[in-house]
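Good morning C.,

I know you're traveling, so I'll keep this short. The sequence:
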Amino acid sequence: MAHYLNAASLPDLARAAARAAQRRPVQQRAAAPCECTGTPLDGWQSQPLSLDETLFEKTGTLVPEDDPEPTFSEYLPDKTSYWSADAPVAPRYFPYNRCGVWQCSTCGRLYMRYVEGGGYFVDRRIRAVNADLIEDVPLPASRGLP
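The tokens, ready to paste straight into the viewer:
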């Protein structure tokens, strides 16, 4: 079972990953940026087909251990959208509550990934983890159907 991460533990892991990415030798960063940065992934994106999945190692999960069907409610304050690079990361809310957390084995950057599905399609989505955007937002008291 993957290591469970939440709004308290995810920022520390994200900051450590960012420090690791910055510690790559300057020559290496300038001459050959990591393959995982070929497409901007600051906001949710369909996972590029060119992205080599073997670069990633699963480091944890945001899927709640005690909730077999996490909410589909989204947390998007201040008119942010799902696709916005500045949208907050609220681990209790969709889509974060259905994500695995993956680290690039080359540069150390951290990403969230999940599979969006509906009707006749499946879309693998990916977003880089930005520690400054992580918010510990509680779910409303009543989430279930009446």
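Safe travels,
E.
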